[in-house]
Amino acid sequence: MFDILPLKGGLDNVKGFFSGGVSVGLKPNGKNDVAFIRSDTLCDVGAVFTSNKFQAAPIRHFKRYGEVFQTNFILINSKNANAMTGEKGVEDIDELFSLLPSSLNAKNPIMSSTGVIGYRLNIQKIAKSFELFDFNSKDSNAAAEAIMTTDRFKKEIALKVDVEGKGSFHVAAICKGAGMINPSLATMLCFITTDANVPKESIIKLLKDAAEESFNAISVDGDTSTNDTVMLLSSAKSGVWDERAFSEALKFVTKHLALEIVRDGEGSKKVVAFEVKNAATLDEAKKAAKALSNSLLVKTAIFGEDPNWGRIASTIGASGITCKEDSLVIHYDDVLVYSPQKKELDKKSEAAANAVMKKESFKIVCDLGVGAEGYTAYGCDLGHEYVSINADYRS
Amino acid sequence: MFDILPLKGGLDNVKGFFSGGVSVGLKPNGKNDVAFIRSDTLCDVGAVFTSNKFQAAPIRHFKRYGEVFQTNFILINSKNANAMTGEKGVEDIDELFSLLPSSLNAKNPIMSSTGVIGYRLNIQKIAKSFELFDFNSKDSNAAAEAIMTTDRFKKEIALKVDVEGKGSFHVAAICKGAGMINPSLATMLCFITTDANVPKESIIKLLKDAAEESFNAISVDGDTSTNDTVMLLSSAKSGVWDERAFSEALKFVTKHLALEIVRDGEGSKKVVAFEVKNAATLDEAKKAAKALSNSLLVKTAIFGEDPNWGRIASTIGASGITCKEDSLVIHYDDVLVYSPQKKELDKKSEAAANAVMKKESFKIVCDLGVGAEGYTAYGCDLGHEYVSINADYRS
After folding, report:
1. Final residue before a domain boundary, out of B234, B263, B292
2. What distance in Å separates residue B257's CA from the closest CA in chain A?
3. What pLDDT shows up at residue B67?
4. CB contact under 8 A, B297 and A222
5. Rounded Cα distance, B207 and B230, in Å
6. Alpha helices, DSSP H only, in A184-242?
7. Mean pLDDT over the full length of chain A
8. How far is B80 from chain A (nearest CA, A)?
9. Which structural domain, as residue segments, surrounds residue A386?
10. Does A6 sit behind a cis peptide bond, omega within 30 degrees of 0 on the bond before it?
11. Do A217 and A117 belong together in one domain?
12. Which of A140, A178, B116, B220 places its Cα 20 to 30 Å from the Cα of A317?
């Protein structure tokens, strides 16, 4: 038995962790642009990275530490992705870390970056943050702001987990990412801290499982930016371990943040869950659900609040999965819009479906009727604001 | 030796074919909405259809005739795709054809439809066209207009091919389709007629080869609408056959029309050729080129005339193909924007690349430097007009 309780204020709740954010002038508007997360003891660390072939320099830098290592320091900058910068990009990180105050005792320091591709880091500018940071601050909020790029709002979460007879631990995270992710390839970064006593050998598996139902449900496999990163740091300071409780809390954290990313979709106004039921295989369910969440015609129909289920059917048919016209059933929330018996949308159903689409979030449920597997992907509408944001991102 | 010469006026140039278009009120603005193409003798016919699992009723109706058959009549309507209409949708076509004047002697009549998914055909309305048509007219232009949906302009082409020592034949076509096709799943239809003496057994192969380098280069394999159709009718009336000459003329026709579709991209202002060179395999070259032509971030950067090559690199990296940061070279027309030696875009190159992007059409050339295969896909920008058109297509 365990209880999961929400807490205010992100990473600050987790024992042994400190964080903060400052402005060094990477963002022209004077907002925070460099963040740190550190721990007063060494932490086990696990990370899931982008599958993009052009992995950014910070990811290649991380991988130099090998499969299993411990760390006590993460530095994060926005506005510059340090991607497509070659071996120099990795060397720049080493040079930057050589400027860290020795009093920090940074062991295996980790860097993470987000922003424009193709420019070297401004080492001097970023190193200014080392003088500005209060390394003993617990200011998750400032860190969450510093990692934002096109985000409209900060993303953080903290949970307390009470495990009967064992005690309690915490899981918290900050995150950045706006929208769609795929196909827009916008970067998402997520830093999770915990004081649960996570066994070293379980970190990666638990993180992968949680990412599969959350961040991967908002992006198509293999189609990710150069910098995407989900990282979990465990200080073990609570001394408490319960795999079921931790796994559930971790999934709650990642699912919540993934949906926050969708809700913050570049220019989007609606969050839509695309649930595919009774598919022949889990892979096919995923393929169809993700095809729906990525279809431009579906996204623009959602923007236009047009219950044009033909675009849903056509996208499923085009996704290459097993499906049949005479077993497909489509609902918008509880409103039946298509079944083999009811092919044309009557005025009453159309009005009801239109009312569903006016909501800020709703479900489009496609029952394929050919098997027993299901998957839900999350997406948002695509409107004029998306075009405006992305036509001129760099300037 | 042979010469290919352009002619005015579409299908009208090909011996033995008649065509026309009328308005029966499917389009509320009174424009032509039903077309016919007929031949005064039986023609061999070949067709390439959508790979969408939910094939529209007219495609299933066509396939009932079997692999090899002859026909002398095609009927085409816009505004209603007759897709997701079940077995009734196919029966509706039979009922419609039963109303054709018997004087036509229509043999194995073919139907083709484009428009909204999920509504039965209005048989009575469409049958009105049988009274309005002049079945002896040669009015390719009226037919081309009748098959338009969101197209901004009509698409037709006609070629005369002179083959030394053999004589001459004609290839002509009308076509509809606007934009992107994929991922927007807008329908494309193309009807090609010829009086070349095409051997029955060559029709499908020649048509597939031509489609691969044209219509398939503007859409991702397998991700097509419910109705996509490319059809070739051969009256053989010239008595002339030369495979090389015919193949080249057919490829010219299909490539021209495919580019016309891109140029007519819903709301688009620019046509861009995405050339991927020196890929490890042809499949990988296609995959990368199509990923580029379909990337929202690339399309919006083109709309914004922003030479942000990082989005090009990131999309290639995300496409899952073999590529290396230290062998990639990217040009915008002749302007080098990225090479392993030149990572950051200097002011001069940026200005030059920006000037290229101001053109109505240009090339983005990605040399992967890992093999010897290449492919060119075609795409367009994505701007506000695309959103406006597709947010409210039905009404």
Report:
1. B263
2. 23
3. 84
4. no
5. 8
6. 203-212
7. 91
8. 11
9. 271-391
10. no
11. yes
12. A178
Q: Are residues B180 and B299 in the same domain?
A: no
Rg of chain B taking only CA atoms, in angstroms: 22
For residue B7, what are its two tokens? 């002619």
pLDDT of residue B395: 39
State CA B349 to chain mean position distance: 35
Spatial neighbors of B103 by CB under 8 A, at least 6 apart, are none
Determine the pLDDT at residue B134: 98
- The percentage of residues in chain B with a pLDDT greater than 90, rounded to a whole number, is 71
* Most confidently modeled range among A179-183, A344-348, B191-195: B191-195
Is residue A390 within 8 angstroms of chain B, CB to CB? yes
pLDDT tens string B268-312: 788 899 999 999 999 999 999 988 988 877 888 888 898 889 889
ipTM field: 0.76
- Give B358's contacts in chain A (Cβ within 8 Å): none
- Indicate whether B393 pLDDT > 60: no
In this structure, are B316 and B250 located in the same domain? no
The CATH number of residue B319's host domain is: 3.10.20.340
**CA–CA distance, B144 with B156 (Å, rounded to integer):** 7
Contact B6, B185 (CB under 8 A): no
**B93-107 per-position pLDDT tens digit:** 999 999 999 999 999
Q: Give the domain CATH number at B59.
A: 3.60.70.12
B338: how many CB neighbours lie within 10 A of its CB?
25
B330 and B254 fall within a common domain:
no
Residues B246 and B280 both lie in one domain: no
Instruction: Check B50, B71, B187, B226 and give the catalytic one.
Output: B187
Q: Kindly state whether residues B306 and B241 are assigned to the same domain.
A: no
Q: Give how many domains chain A has, as a whole number.
A: 2
DSSP string, B292-346: HHH-HHHHHHHHTT---HHHHHHHHHHTT----TTT-EEEETTEEEE-SS--S--
Q: Which two tokens stand for residue B179?
A: 């934009």
Confidence class for position A183, pLDDT limits 50, 70, 90: very low
CA A258 to chain centre: 5
| Domain boundary, last residue among A241, A263, A285 | A263
Tell me: do A49 and A101 sit in the same domain: yes
Q: Chain A 258-277, CB below 8 Å of chain B: which residues?
A: none
Mean pLDDT for B238-259 is 95
Closest residue of chain B to A393, computed from CA coordinates: B301
- Choose among B84, B309, B338: nearest Cβ to A343: B84
Of the candidates B24, B14, B29, B89, the one whose C-alpha atom is nearest the C-alpha of residue B59 is: B89
Taking CB atoms and an 8 Å limit, are B387 and A300 in contact across chains? Answer: yes
Q: How many Å apart are CA A306 and CA A298, to the nearest integer?
A: 9
Same domain, B247 and B284: no
pLDDT at A390 over 70: no
DSSP B222: T
Q: What is the distance in angstroms between the Cα of A311 and the nearest Cα belonging to chain B?
A: 8
How far apart, in whole angstroms, are the C-alpha atoms of residue A282 and residue A259?
A: 21
Measured CA angle at B228 (ends B227, B229), to 5 deg: 110
